What we know:
Elements: H1 10-14, H2 19-22, H3 26-45, E1 49-53, E2 61-65, E3 71-79, E4 82-86, E5 100-102, H4 108-116
Antiparallel strand pairs: 1-2, 2-3, 3-4, 4-5
Helix pairs in contact: 3-4
Amino acid sequence: xxxxxxxxxxxxxxxxxxxxxxxxxxxxxxxxxxxxxxxxxxxxxxxxxxxxxxxxxxxxxxxxxxxxxxxxxxxxxxxxxxxxxxxxxxxxxxxxxxxxxxxxxxxxxxxxxxxxxx
Length: 118
């Protein structure tokens, strides 16, 4: 649907949302992107190669590429106390020591780097 200026109308864009996008607010999507971008930049400063993946559907993922060729995937999840980086698969959301770190921690990049490159 185009309006008078030839732009897509909000009504036309709203109908194309993915079902999983409806449960996550725009503020949460932006917060995930900002946290992962900040972590990627901090890791870049430590000499680690990273890639931010923005899938069409689903959460953004920060991929960390080791020198050995392995790839670790970091996601950020919201918990009652704040945001946390998690590098376990989505189906293993157990809170075990060494498999997550608070996103606001000053040493989050160091913790992630030591955990996923070991």
